[in-house]
Design goal:
The chain is of the alpha+beta class. The chain has three domains: about 1-155, Jelly Rolls (Sandwich); about 160-200; about 205-260, Homeodomain-like (Arc Repressor Mutant, subunit A, Orthogonal Bundle). It has helices spanning about 100-105, 125-135, 140-155, 165, 175-185, 190-200, 205-220, 225-235, 240-250, 255-260; strands spanning about 1-5, 15-25, 30-35, 40-45, 50-55, 65, 70, 80, 85-95, 115, 260-265, 265-270. The strands form two sheets. The chain has a six-stranded antiparallel sheet, covered by helices on one side. A six-stranded antiparallel sheet has the order 6-5-8-3-12-11, with no helix packed on it. A hairpin with a 2-residue loop joins strand 11 and strand 12 (about 265-270). The model has no long low-confidence stretch (mean pLDDT about 90).
């Protein structure tokens, strides 16, 4: 497998955390489960191999075929899909607010879904995909993508002047809706509405997911760390609170997660 990874310069970096391109990837299991990580994605396939998602985890015999490009909004629960075979794919991973902002997709309407973006709005992604397929060098594909997103960025603005609250929310580890309202002089109702439009969730749920993500990182460290230590380090009240929230997001306990076979920290191999 050939794997390339890119982080764009600003201003694109404000909205896109990374761009990954892999060629010749074949999963080591029949199915994979993507855990919520707070990063909406744009997936662009560069081959003609079909991709399938599983809408009902209890019936994997009826997968849903995906379009050649698709977006995933904010995930509050894991999604399952058939592992790729000899796949060539570009994955654009957005900041929590980035996809809705750049593609003008209402975030609160695409939660927990894998959707063809052209069905929601005219994004120009079909034409972009054809151009990307013709380009063979990773740097040329990056140049195409960055030109595409810079044009999107020049044609859009954040709503209602609440840009700083949403973009910097990751630094507010212990913030509440009330404290955000007091600090930034917006009503709680307005902040909540803008979060749902831009990210697809509430500040509290995003805060919990950010803590779970930090916990997942610690659970994958080579040195052993107790659940109590992780709970304290990541801002949970105690170990019980940590385990409860972890299971709500990932559908498994931290102990079960550690034992799972993983392709990546947020990708679980399933038989």
């Amino acid at each position: 497998m050939i794997l390339n990874f890119h982080i764009s310069d600003y201003p694109i970096r404000n909205f896109i955390s990374s761009i990954i391109c892999y060629e010749g990837y074949t999963g080591s299991s029949n199915f994979e489960m993507l855990l919520p990580d707070g990063s909406p994605r744009l997936i662009i396939t560069l081959d003609d191999n079909p991709r399938y998602s599983i809408t009902n985890a209890e019936n994997t015999n009826k997968p849903t075929r995906l379009s050649s490009s698709w977006i995933t909004g904010f995930l509050s629960r894991p999604i399952i899909y058939l592992s790729e075979k000899n796949a060539s794919t570009i994955s654009v991973q957005f900041e929590a607010y980035g996809l809705a902002h750049l593609l003008k997709v209402p975030a609160n309407e695409i939660n927990n879904q894998l959707l063809d973006p052209e069905l929601i709005s005219s994004t120009g992604l079909a034409e972009l995909r054809e151009k990307l397929i013709l380009k063979k060098a990773f740097k040329d594909r990056i140049a195409l993508l960055e030109t595409f997103f810079l044009k999107k960025l020049s044609n859009t603005e954040f709503r209602s002047g609440i840009k700083e609250v949403i973009m910097n929310f990751g630094t507010y580890d212990h913030a509440t809706l009330k404290s955000l309202s007091v600090e930034h002089k917006y009503s709680q109702k307005h902040i909540l509405s803008e979060f749902k439009k831009s990210i697809g969730t509430t500040p509290k749920k995003l805060q919990t997911l950010n803590r779970i993500n930090r916990a997942i990182k610690l659970l994958n460290e080579p040195q052993s760390i107790s659940f109590a230590q992780i709970a304290y380090s990541c801002g949970f009240y105690d170990q019980t609170h940590f385990i409860k929230k972890f299971k709500e997001v990932t559908l498994m306990t931290p102990g079960a997660y550690v034992k799972r076979n993983k392709a990546y920290p947020h990708v679980i191999n399933l038989d």
